[in-house]
Specification:
- This protein is 90% helix and 0% strand.
- It contains five helices and no strands.
- The protein has helices at 5-35, 37-47, 50-81, 87-100, 102-144.
- The longest helix is centred in the C-terminal third of the chain and has 43 residues, at 102-144.
- The N and C termini lie far apart (66 Å).
């Protein structure tokens, strides 16, 4: 992955996941208020309360889980239908997209674009061949008449 943002996604999601799944709202609020009171004061001044920040972290964590899942489904769909990759490659791409999200999907998009354009050219060539065949038949029918 060539995008620097990909390196920051994992630690951020892991920290939000730890806060959401392990600590919970009360645990995160306690963390901000007592163990990290220097941050808790700033957070309370900015957001109104540390509990509100804990709720925001939970919402953002679940949003990122859903977003990455949808991105993985989108990537898997294109690996299966557009790129026609084997099952193992489909799963690899889907897992990469699920783990990192957008930066990996941005790596997959040029492949999808190339495959889509190649398919369109192939269909256009086949249509031109069919048109040529129809024209030849008409010419042949005219000569026989």
């Amino acid at each position: 992955v060539t995008k620097p943002a990909a390196r920051g996604i994992w630690p951020t999601i892991l920290a939000m996941g730890y806060g959401t799944l392990v600590l919970g709202i009360d645990g995160m609020t306690d963390l901000w208020d007592h163990k990290m009171s220097f941050m808790g004061t700033k957070i309370a001044q900015t957001l109104g309360s540390t509990e509100r920040l804990s709720y925001v972290i939970c919402i953002l964590f679940w949003f990122s889980v859903v977003a990455h899942g949808l991105e993985a489904l989108y990537g898997w769909y294109h690996c299966r239908t557009t790129l026609r990759l084997g099952l193992q490659q489909q799963l690899h791409w889907a897992l990469l997209v699920a783990a990192v999200g957008g930066p990996v999907l941005l790596e997959l998009n040029p492949l999808i674009t190339v495959a889509t354009r190649a398919e369109a050219k192939k269909k256009e060539a086949a249509k031109d061949d069919d048109d040529d065949d129809d024209k030849k038949e008409k010419d042949k029918d005219k000569k026989e008449s």
